[in-house]
Amino acid sequence: MGFFEKLFGKKEKESLEQGLQKTKEGFLAKISKAITGKSTIDASTLDQLEEALISADVGIDTTLQIISRIEERVKKEKYVNTSELNHLLKEEIQHMLYDVDELHKSFEIPTNKKPYVILIVGVNGVGKTTTIGKLAHNYTKAGYSVLLGAADTFRAAAVDQLTIWSERVGVPIIKQAMGSDPSAVAFDTVKSAIAKNIDIVIIDTAGRLHNKAHLMEELSKIKRVIQKVIPDAPHEVMLILDGSTGQNALQQAKQFTAATEVNALTITKLDGTAKGGVVLAIANEFKIPVKFIGVGEKIDDLLVFDKKEFVNSLFD
Predict the structure, then answer these.
(1) Backbone phi, then psi, for 112, in 5-degree steps?
(2) Confidence tier at 189 by pLDDT (50, 70, 90)
(3) Are strands 302-304 and 290-294 parallel, antiparallel or unpaired?
(4) For 303, which DSSP code?
């Protein structure tokens, strides 16, 4: 049994199922309505299925792709009854989700990158600080040393909240006074990580979108100063999105992927929403791996995202 299989055990499956309960209830109710009393998959069934997917915030484009693929399979396989629809739908949804490499399926990092630098981006209120704390906890639990960098210097609360998390999970933090240059904090953080032989650096950034040009400039500057110390860093730019905002999360993803080179996603607050289908929309549209999902308030409620387990939890 590999590290990932150990990581995603019974406890994690239960957390995932509970976290997706609201999405699952609405989603399955609409699918049941679409197929009840039907003996074949006809145009009416597909229309209702389309409505079920869109109402779960799967998104119009992704929904149309799924429906189109199901239509093709129904024609190709000649006769498919409604009892097989769930199986078809599970397969097509899994097909839509972006495949990730093995390292993206665990709290593991490449052995040849030390320190491994993760730059966290996302708007205020999506759960950035909480996610950073949970990441630090999980990486520490996996045996790594972690250092936090409080480069969101425009909000005193952001630095204070990150400090509380650093104390809670027992990892050090580099911070400066409110209003300090964020890139200076990032620079000090990676320098300190090298001096202390730290495995993982997680740097918070400001969550402002009202001026995209300024955001791009700030993130670019942070990357430049980090690269003065570690030429190939940051190794990961992780965008945090609030799943409960549905299509708003999709719009944020568009803006942040335009502003910086995002290569990993974490989607939070899936436990409090019936809009969990937005995970499919985001993963399909941006072709960026969803690495983690947040399914609760507890420190262990940040789960490695596994597309098979996610889809199974929606249907089972």
Answers:
(1) -95, 10
(2) very high
(3) antiparallel
(4) E
Tally of CB atoms within 10 A around 7: 18
Q: Number of H helices and number of E strands within the chain?
A: 13, 8
Write the Ramachandran bin of 176: left for phi over 0, alpha for psi from -120 to 50, otherwise beta.
Answer: beta
**CA–CA gap between residue 92 and residue 56 (Å, rounded):** 16
Q: Kindly provide the b/e burial profile for residues 32-64, where b requires at least 16 CB atoms within 10 angstroms of the residue's own CB.
A: eebbeeeeebeeebbebbbebbbbbbbbeebbe
Single-letter residue type at 215: L
Residues in the chain: 316
Q: Tokens 């209830």 map to which residue?
A: 25
Quick check: 203 and 186 in contact, CB under 8 A? yes
- Report DSSP state, residue 295: -
Whether pTM > 0.85 for this model: the answer is yes
Question: Hey, which bits of the chain come out as E strands?
Answer: 116-121, 146-150, 173-174, 200-204, 236-242, 264-268, 290-294, 302-304
